[in-house]
UniProtKB/TrEMBL annotation:
Protein species of origin: uncultured Nocardioidaceae bacterium
EC number in record: 3.6.1.13
Domain Nudix hydrolase: 57-190
Coiled-coil spans in chain: none
Protein name from the UniProt record: ADP-ribose pyrophosphatase
Alphabetized InterPro entries for the sequence: NUDIX_hydrolase-like_dom_sf (IPR015797), NUDIX_hydrolase_dom (IPR000086)
Gene3D superfamilies linked: Nucleoside Triphosphate Pyrophosphohydrolase (3.90.79.10)
Positions of the UniProt region annotated as Disordered: 1-20
Length: 197
């Protein structure tokens, strides 16, 4: 038995995140930038300690791991200004249509970004990419039964106008993740999740 600190998980126990909300004494808006807002919260811990936390409010998003009948996955090479790199990513987008279920957002984004439709949708992952400061949640879908989609109504602008689609065998995508050649968090998580199913 290890002498390391912390409780040990036991077989039969459910290993799961759990909802919990600490009291907020004060919340003030610091920035409103359209698709992101920043607020400063004064949080009260259960032991009474007060501390400040900055929270970025961001719309939820979807990601799509599109896999064809040969187990090739669709990657999009896209320039990302914030990190100064062209990253290999999955088709993805914001849940920015009120009332639209995430799976419908995923289908729309796959058609818009890659001109691909899917007949089969499976929720692969649900995740918070940066929970230390941001409330954004991602729904990540495995899309199969692929065919061409009509994306003629969608105009790709800015970085999206320069995206390149690449079909890669899943096992090669896994190697690229493990060799740190694919570093986009969404792509890393989805590729590894699909490979272990």
């Amino acid at each position: 038995m290890s002498a390391l600190p912390g409780a040990s998980w036991s077989p039969g126990e459910t290993l799961s995140d759990s909802p919990e909300r600490w009291e907020v004494a004060e919340s003030r808006s610091e920035y409103d930038g359209g698709f992101i807002q920043v607020r400063a919260d004064t949080v009260i811990a259960p032991d009474g300690e007060r501390f400040e936390r900055t929270v970025v409010e961001h719309k939820d998003a979807v990601g799509i791991l599109a896999m064809d009948e040969d187990d090739r996955v669709l990657l999009l090479a896209q320039y990302r200004h914030a990190v100064g790199q062209r990253l290999l990513e999955l088709p993805a987008g914001l849940c920015d249509v009120d009332g639209e279920p995430p799976v419908d957002t995923a289908a729309r984004e796959l058609a818009e970004e890659a001109a691909v439709a899917a007949s089969s949708w499976e929720l692969l992952l649900e995740m918070f990419p940066s929970p230390g400061f941001c409330d954004e949640r991602w729904w990540v879908y495995l899309a199969r039964g692929l065919s061409l989609a009509d994306a003629s109504d969608f105009v790709r602008e800015h970085e999206e106008a320069d995206m390149q689609a690449i079909w890669v065998p899943l096992d090669e995508a896994v190697r690229a993740v493990l060799d740190r050649r694919i570093t986009d968090a969404l792509a890393v998580a989805a590729i590894l999740a699909a490979a272990t199913r």
